[in-house]
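idk why but the lab printer keeps eating my pages so im just putting this in chat instead. protein + adenosine-3'-5'-diphosphate:
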Amino acid sequence: MSDYTWFEGIPFPAFGVPKETLQNVCNKFVVKEEDLILLTYPKSGTNWLVEIVCLIQTKGDPKWTQSLPIWDRSPWIETDIGYDILIKKKGPWLMTSHLPMHLFSKSLFSSKAKVIYLIRDVLVSGYYFWGNSILAKKPDSLGTYVEWFLKGNVLYGSWFEHIRAWLTMRELDNFLLLYYEDMKKDTMGTVKKICDFLGKKLEPDELDLVLKYSSFQVMKENNMSNYSLMEKELILPGFTLMRKGTTGDWKNHFTVAQAEAFDKVFQEKMAGFPPGMFLWE
Ligand code: A3P
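predcted complex ->
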């Protein structure tokens, strides 16, 4: 069984996410107006979003994405390494976080810093990712993982609560909500949406380069983005970030009973959101 860092009743990876950093992010870290924060529950397509944003910043030039590890380009604020990079660097900051809203720096909520929140149906992706690392407790089956997931007994806590809380910001001008499922269906449309949100004007050929260098295949082959640089003692055979990159994979995995159990909890937890709010199949 894996050890966790427990903070405010939520388990975080014991490796790389110490309590002290979580306390610092929550209570000390001050977000600046010009910062851009990429927020997701793990396995929502975070790294794809980071890659796209980095490529938008360079107008499609892949030099940056191909020379610096993804976690150095947009540091994860809750990790010891990421926090250290951020506090030593003069802003504006591009940063990533999986933190639930109530544990994020309070300074965000009175700031104009931009937030992109990406959501996805993450269960199956998480089952493989965490199961092939030593960062999380390994379930004996997908059925067990579904049970843990529905109760929120997984790394970073409840997916439902993560989404519910962050979506309270969805009407704000400095908040952009994206769906992985949308990104897959219309990647160019999503890239343009991000450009508009960031006030970046890219030429058509630059947009094509963003698409090209953030494609699944190119990212899979880019050692700076595919997690092949991850510390070997943390991973098990079969570990990969770039697994399938598809939507609706639950259909290939869930039994009818698991799909029904998921749906029941989903309906209960997400009650109150407008119909059509969630796009997954
Ligand atoms: P799968 O496990 O379903 O393949 P995160 O970055 O939040 O950890 O999310 C990882 C998921 O995003 C993985 O899903 C991975 O394949 C997918 N992903 C990463 N880069 C992608 C890309 N360029 N296009 C589509 N999916 C991508």
